Amino acid sequence: MTATRLHRLAVAFLSSAAVLAATSCGYDATPLPPAPDTSAEVAEPAAPPTCDASTATQSFAPDGGADQGQSLQRIRERGFLIAGVAADNYLLGFRNPFTAQIEGFDIDMVNAIAAGIFGTSDGHVQLRVITAADRIPLLAEDEVDIVARNMTINCTRWQQIAFSAEYFRSGQKLLVRKGSGIKSIEDMAGKRACAPVGTTSIENIQALAPEAIPVTATNDTGCLVKFQNGETDAITTDDTVLAGLAAQDPYAEVLATRRLTEEPYGIGVNSERVDLVRFINRVFERMRADGSWQASYNRWLKPSLGVDATQPTPLYGRRP
């Protein structure tokens, strides 16, 4: 074979290799459109390679076109937002015995989201009372649009559903009988601790107090009934929930100790409905600006928790 022939074959081979390389890398010379403007107050960091304790609360940044997404259009065409909530979590989501209406801090979040979609929440919200164990299955099956039920954001749940930005920071504590002798988590060895099934609380107490005896109930009220019947020595869950339980039982007290865990609350959404998550985050930004989040906290939670609080700073940067 001549040198000229070899030279031609080498050029052809290198040209083919370049085409294949460009194809395999998905190269496209078409200029990308500019990134959409956002109303986020916090700079958006690069997406993390993995989810860990420091990035678990990272959500999708709000954007200018979120109110035109398919999820929002579906809800508007239906005429109402379907929200999974609690009806037995005093202060968060509970049925007012005088009005029969479900109200509380979490319900205020639902109403704000509905008002953002429809201009008003009146007549545009369907509250579906669910248990803690129902939350993820109902979202995954698309039977509810959102869940606002003191739901902790964590990496495991991100693998199943999506979350809004953090809208409240709670923490797990213990509720015990006055004079029980239980002063801290260390005193729970051999003692029974109740938490609702399907919550992180029961997992946490087993990790923090391996010698405690776990007891479960369908919901927080079920734990309170067991507590009052002497079937459990303590109830362990978020301090927001325990404050409501203590308000219903004069013989119970929430231990004034440091939180056993940090529990960042988020609104749960089906993982395919990122446009709805972005929209909810826009609503939360608006609540920060107009003071409605602060007003809700001051009404429902501050009197029982006894501490000042502000709306958590959102962490954005998650990619679909």
TrEMBL record:
GO terms for cellular component: extracellular region; outer membrane-bounded periplasmic space. InterPro entries: Bact_solute-bind_prot3, Solute-binding_3/MltF_N. It comes from the Bacteria. The keyword Electron transport does not apply. It comes from Nocardioides piscis. One of its GO terms (biological process) is amino acid transport. Residues 80-304 form the Solute-binding protein family 3/N-terminal domain. The keyword Signal applies. Residues 35-69 are annotated as: Disordered. This is Transporter substrate-binding domain-containing protein. Keywords: Signal, Transport. Residues 1-21 form the signal peptide.
